[in-house]
Amino acid sequence: MEAKELLEIVVKAADSKKAQKIVALDVSQVSGIADYFIIMQGMNNRQLGAIVEAIDEAAHLKGVEVGKGIEGQPDSGWVLIDLGDIIVSVFDEDTRLRYNLEKLWNDAPILNLSEWVSE
C-alpha cells in the first residue's frame, strides 16, 4: 500500500472518532524518518484511546501492521503510532501546544485534508 493511501485511511479513521485539528505534513523532502507526519488532538484520555484504536484497526484491516508499535498512553497526553511511512501523534490539547510539532516541522508542506474530514 502506498503512503498516500494509508494517509487517507488514518485520517478517516481519526475523523470517525471526532479527532480535532487533524494536520498532515509531507516530510518526505525534509526527513528520512517518514513520508508523512499526522498530528491531531482529542478532548480527553478516553477519546485519545478511541482514536488510537480506530487508527490501529483501520490500518490492520488494510493489511498494514503497526511498524515499531504504539508508544505512550492516552493518560500521558501523547500517543505515537508508527506505521512505517507515516508517523501519527495523537495529543491532548495542552500537550500538543507544549510540543508544537507543526512549528518544529514548519518547512514541511501541510496537506489539504478537507475531502477526508467532516467539519
How does the overall form come out from the CA principal axes?
A: globular
Number of strands: 5
Low-confidence runs: none
Structural class: alpha+beta
Mean pLDDT over the full residue set: 94
Q: How big a fraction of the residues is strand?
A: 15-25%
The value of Rg in angstroms is 13 Å
CA-CA gap between termini = 27 Å
Residue share in helices? 25-40%
Cross-sheet strand order for the largest sheet? 1-2-5-4-3
Describe this structure in words.
By secondary structure, the protein is an alpha+beta fold. It is built from four helices and five strands. A five-stranded mixed sheet has the order 1-2-5-4-3. Strand 3 (69-71) and strand 4 form a beta hairpin. Helix 1 (3-16) runs antiparallel to helix 2. The chain is globular and about 35 Å long.
Give me the secondary-structure topology:
Elements: H1 3-16, E1 20-26, E2 36-42, H2 45-61, E3 69-71, E4 78-82, E5 86-92, H3 93-99, H4 101-104
Parallel strand pairs: 2-5
Antiparallel strand pairs: 1-2, 3-4, 4-5
Helix pairs in contact: 1-2
Properties at a glance:
4 helices; globular; 5 strands; five-stranded mixed β-sheet; 24% strand
Quick structural overview:
Helices cover 35% and strands 24% of the residues. With 119 residues, the protein is α+β, with helices and mostly antiparallel strands.
